[in-house]
Amino acid sequence: MTVVLVHGNPETPAVWAPLVEAWGRDDVMCLNLPGFGCSRPAGFAATKEDYLAWLIAELEARAEPVHLVGHDWGGGLVGRLAMVRPDLLVSWASDALGLFHPRYIWHDAARIWQTPGEGEALISAMLDIPLAERTAGFAALGIPEASAAVLASAADAEMGACVLSLYRSAIQPAMAEWGTAAEEATARRGLFLHATEDPYVGRGTGVLDVAATMGATVAELVGRGHWWMLEDPVGGAAVLEDWVSGH
Predict the structure, then answer these.
(1) pLDDT tens-digit readout, 188-230
(2) CA quadruple 31, 37, 39, 43: dihedral positive or negative?
(3) Nearest Cα residue to 138 out of 124, 158, 155
(4) How far is the C-alpha of 244 from the C-alpha of 68, rounded, in Å?
(5) With the C-alpha atoms ordered 163, 166, 171, 175, is the resulting torsion angle positive or negative?
């Protein structure tokens, strides 16, 4: 049964590479969000609804349901898809269920991206610095240096424009409204990948409340941060293998 991995922001499928290598399965595929290190279709506005429709179409094109795993914004899309199209899934896993909590507050960078003028200035500042400095900035966020270099090199104006559009489509209460259908996700086996040191996707009991409403089993990634799949690819692969094997 195919396993499909969906990355987040500011990333490309390269964020999964160490985990995929450690996992060693031959049925894992990594999708590439339009505009993130690749082109986007003509007319693609890069809102959260556009990305959800794109993900649904990607899965509809497959011959059978899949195990769907999402990180960061990919995790938000996976969670929402589990609510509205569970027929496309065997199971789902996400590390970003806190986004659906009615009291979720976007992190500082997200709120800047959501602000006209300030968001454009932040993106421009990131793209204007030399690649070595941008790589150092990514590494400072907790991304291992080798992966930081790969991800930093993919950042461009196209990605920046998509980031602004995506985050502006998700100004609260937009994500809370997505979460009103949370109980529908119980139609398929769900897993909350709870990286305990992740500061970006919601923390505390609220996150666990969302997971419970969605019927998700909780896998605690103790001491791991936002980029748990890069911090400990072997451990992450083991958790996912246990999950998709139905244990």
Answers:
(1) 999 999 999 999 998 777 899 999 999 999 999 999 999 999 9
(2) positive
(3) 155
(4) 9
(5) negative
Length of the chain: 247
Interval 94-133: pLDDT, tens: 999 999 999 999 999 999 999 999 999 999 999 999 999 9
What order of strands is seen across the sheet that includes strand 216-221?
28-31, 3-6, 66-70, 89-94, 189-195, 216-221
Q: How far apart are CA 144 and CA 152, in angstroms?
A: 12
Write out the two tokens for 96.
Answer: 């970003």
Q: Look up residue 133 and give its two tokens.
A: 């400095």
126/111 Cα distance (integer angstroms): 16
pTM of the model: 0.97
Between CA 95 and CA 5 the distance in angstroms is: 12
d(CA 121, CA 66): 39
Two structure tokens written together for 199: 């500061």
- β-pairing, 189-195 vs 216-221, is parallel
* 3-state class (DSSP) for residue 168: helix
Q: In the block, which residue shows the tokens 């790969």?
A: 150
Mean of the pLDDT values across residues 25-32?
Answer: 98
Specify whether the CB–CB gap between 94 and 68 falls below 8 A: no
CATH code at 3-106+173-244: 3.40.50.1820
Across residues 77-99, what is the average pLDDT? 98
